[in-house]
Amino acid sequence: MGLRILPEVIHSLQRDQNVTTEIIPGRYRHFRGNEYQVLDTARHSETEEVMVVYRCLYGDHSLWVRPLSLFASLVEVEIEGQLKSVPRFALVEPVDDRLADSGGLV
Asked: Which of 87, 93, 77 is nearest to 2 (CA)?
């Protein structure tokens, strides 16, 4: 399985700063290589900004939140001597809906 960019999220962010698009729960790879499990989205209690709730799949497996606009943003990286835009986080594997619906029992 290769990395998949979420163009619908990126285009939504570029088109409209009031993001309504949701991130797909699943395993994501950060552009630097570490992997994370996106659990869900939530809203900031004061600003109502959409936040992505995710867990590190390495180290202490801690829980983190990041604004959706940053999570789905593109970053500039040097690849073979050229600057290229790549997603900050790219979907590697979506959550198996059968597992999500059954509480982890299939």
From this structure: 93
**H or E segment and range at residue 9:** helix 7-15
**Integer distance in angstroms from the first to the last C-alpha of the chain?**
22
Residues 51 and 65: their CA atoms lie apart, in Å, by 6
- Helix (H) or strand (E) segment spanning residue 27: strand 26-30
Which among 20, 56, 37 has a CA at the least distance from the CA of 8?
20
> Which pLDDT tens digit goes with each residue over 45-101?
999 999 999 999 999 999 999 999 999 999 998 888 889 999 999 999 998 765 555
Task: Indicate the domain borders of the chain.
Answer: 7-94
Domain boundaries 7-94, CATH class:
mainly beta
CB-hemisphere CA count at 13 Å for 53?
6
pTM greater than 0.85: no
